[in-house]
Amino acid sequence: MTGKGQARMRPESVEALAEIIRLTDMPLSPVGGGTRLRPGEGQGARIETGRLSGVTHYEPEALTLVVRAGTSLQAVQELLASEGQMLAFEPDGRAGSTIGGVVAANASGPRRVQAGACRDALIGVQFVDGRGEIIRNGGRVMKNVTGYDLVKLMAGSRGTLGVLTECAFKTAPIPQVSLTLALPDLEAGPAVAALTRALTGPFDVSGAGWLPERGALIRLEGLEGSVAIRRQTLAARLEGFGGLVEVPGMNWADLVPEARGGDLWRITCQPTEAPALLAALPEPLALDWGGALIWVELPPGEMPVLPSWSGQAQRVRGTEPALVPPMNSIVARLNRDLRARFDPRGILVGEG
Amino acid sequence: MQMPEPDGAIIARRVEIAALLRAAVPDAVIDDPAETRAYECDALSAYRCPPLAVVLPATTEEVAAVLRICHREGVPVVPRGAGTSLAGGSMPTADAVVIGLARMNAVLEADYDNRFIRVQTGRTNLSVSGAVDGAGFFYAPDPSSQLACAIGGNIGMNSGGAHCLKYGVTTNNLLAVKLVLMDGQIVDLGGPMGEAAGLDLLGVVCGSEGQLGIVTEATLRILPKPAGARPVLVAFDASETAGACVAAIIRAGILPVAIEFMDRPCIRATEAFAQAGYPDCEALLIIEVEGTPPEIAEQLQLIRQIAEGFSPVEFRESRSEEESRRIWLGRKSAFGAMGQINDYMCLDGTIPVSALPQVLGGIARLSAEFGLEVANVFHAGDGNMHPLILYDANKPGDLERCEEFGAEILKLCVEVGGCLTGEHGVGVEKRELMTTQFTLTDLEAQMRVKDVFDPQWLLNAAKVFPLSVSASRREGRNDRKGTSAHAA
Ligand SMILES: Cc1cc2nc3c(=O)[nH]c(=O)nc-3n(C[C@H](O)[C@H](O)[C@H](O)COP(=O)(O)OP(=O)(O)OC[C@H]3O[C@@H](n4cnc5c(N)ncnc54)[C@H](O)[C@@H]3O)c2cc1C
């Protein structure tokens, strides 16, 4: 997606990055692998983190990992897997994706319903803000309330406050057993009711989604005996929805879909709101988080017309950025003012 | 401890300001000095200062009305939940209006299908779980103070509890808030799954110690109750061995809901107080697992296998509700027990689990140096330590010595890669130590967030940041010089 003639910078050190930001006056777009850019993003001169890579610290017995932001997601996942661990929030893998990009996008997969989002596993950051200052927040311990939680502010900040240079995570053990069960006959709307039944009982569900052709999907993970027991009790609870079948080798990354030519929309809602939204939309590409996340493709440029609900719909692939309903004016003011404090010259360009 | 000198001009206007507040929220204003005394401190009770006035609003609109007045008049405000902060987070200043949320304790909505409860933030932590218990749900963060502390205070401090090893702390269970800004504007942050477009404002408000706004409503994630839970008690002849056992359990991929640690001085004190029947040992772990009986058995078998590699003095599995209660009894009464025998100061640093032997050794050395005893009790799974330093409040100089000792322990925590506070917050207590963990640039970045939410620095301003570091901002609204506030 790099435009021709667009400037690119790949600083070799945090200090060099800070200096570039201090000295420049042109619009900058912080980029990791450029795999999670949204409409309108990435249009300034690219400041890339690829050379700021490598693992700083990994302590499996403390479940903590510190890694430089330009490290590839794949390298992080391989390292963790070699120790029987993982990033519990299950970011979807994309070729070239960096860990800094994952954090800047707060990219969180199906296990979010059980283990939280990227922002919940993130325990520390270092970043260079729009003033060119090197800032640390959080640390490398799991419990830390020392000062304001800028770690959360940076997760999902999409390069608008600064360039992430280092990220620390709480890691998690890979479960002994992972079992995917499906209710294959369910359409998206009715699937939400089944997923809700599963999520409201003591089954410790670690994935609850829906895909066309595959129906409602539920994942149970843990020790072997425990998974077997929960499978039985869950089957009894879901009797009214048709028989549960096992899906061997399920790839849960499929729940983060790609658009096939149209615009990709990401809609958050309360699960009980999902059926009404679904009724107003074409068949979704996927549902996740028990129905709290709807992925849908719309014709290019088209806006969804939806009954009022408590969440938001955002265009994540397409040409123009779009958010429905638009941000409340006070929230928008707080966003704007925070950006202005961290980047007073307004050189870090996000969407619009 | 230093506190900024209160603004004499505001104190001189006490009667007038109280009248303004009373006109906006009749029956909710306390300004009789005999009554404001009840709000002069929190659980860091060595420090006290009665406020200018106290307001106990009943609605979000009343909170907004009070803040609008204080904003207009330039009057500082200190938000208060139940006042159980151990860091002086809700301790007033003499020129401040305390806004207490105690009357706002309603459950607004319990939505089981969507797994959340919406409450007013004066509601106590335990009564949130209580409200959903009948439907088979619970609210996970469980500070030991849960009978008393309020959800607003939990959000202010991003509180944790024994079970957060598995379920996370407050911020991981908070989905949305209604926040009243210092100028009286009301804003909703968060949304389904805790998400909203733009920056994670909810995330930065949680743990901001009442400095960014007053939270009047909170939407909290609730979880289906597990089928059951069972603790085991494992006793060791050395603290280091207990620490190594914790690391081995985590390394093996087992994630119990809680792993609690107590050392000999702590065990001795709780035995004398609660007679839980703990074994005679140097250190013990209480490990709790959840599930149906066969699931519990499966986990405990693995834990036993690992623990046996460390030659425990005893591995005590609970066989009944009563035995479970007794295993937890000592741990739950640890603070009360220490309070019986001494005055104590409770620290809250977090360390990387691997640094445990080094830090325990350091604490023992410092204990000899300062001549004050320490008992250790902590959340071992996540490295959050609670060393309790014993002192005698009636002995001149003992409190100061205890504070110096505490500061040394916290510096040690930072040195080994940890932090000053894992769940109690900075408040006034650890404010001046912030520069051991952060550079001035780091602190400046944090203060910029406050500049956005509270440009005049009226909300709980003398907390969190070292006074000299926040001085120009606080003095921007007023000319204030630091004076010494003395221990009561
Ligand atoms: C015996 C004992 C045991 C404890 N155990 C634990 C424990 O296990 N884990 C733990 O984390 N803590 C523990 N604590 C500390 C304390 O209980 C927590 O910090 C608790 O969350 C404070 O709640 P509170 O309602 O008492 O808040 P307060 O003390 O009233 O206030 C705490 C902070 O939050 C701010 N605040 C309060 N309400 C609001 C609001 N509505 N909006 C914005 N800001 C607000 C205040 O200004 C202050 O900065 C313990 C304390 C005691 C005394």
Automatic annotation (TrEMBL), chain A:
UniProt entry tagged with the keyword Flavoprotein: yes
Molecular function GO labels: catalytic activity; FAD binding
Domain of life: Bacteria
SUPFAM superfamilies: FAD-binding/transporter-associated domain-like, FAD-linked oxidases, C-terminal domain
Start and end residues of each FAD-binding PCMH-type domain: 1-174
InterPro entries assigned to the protein according to its UniProt record, in alphabetical order: FAD-bd_PCMH, FAD-bd_PCMH-like_sf, FAD-bd_PCMH_sub2, FAD-linked_Oxase-like_C, Oxid_FAD_bind_N
Protein name according to UniProt: Glycolate oxidase FAD binding subunit
UniProtKB/TrEMBL annotation, chain B:
Domain FAD-binding PCMH-type residues, every copy: 47-225
Source taxon at top rank: Bacteria
Named cofactor requirement(s): FAD
Keywords: FAD, Flavoprotein, Oxidoreductase
Keyword Flavoprotein carried by entry: yes
Record SUPFAM superfamilies: FAD-binding/transporter-associated domain-like, FAD-linked oxidases, C-terminal domain
Keyword Transmembrane helix attributed: no
GO molecular function, one term: FAD binding
Pfam families xrefs: FAD-oxidase_C (PF02913), FAD_binding_4 (PF01565)
Protein name, entry field: Glycolate oxidase
Origin species: Paracoccus sulfuroxidans
Upper taxonomic lineage: Bacteria, Pseudomonadati, Pseudomonadota, Alphaproteobacteria, Rhodobacterales
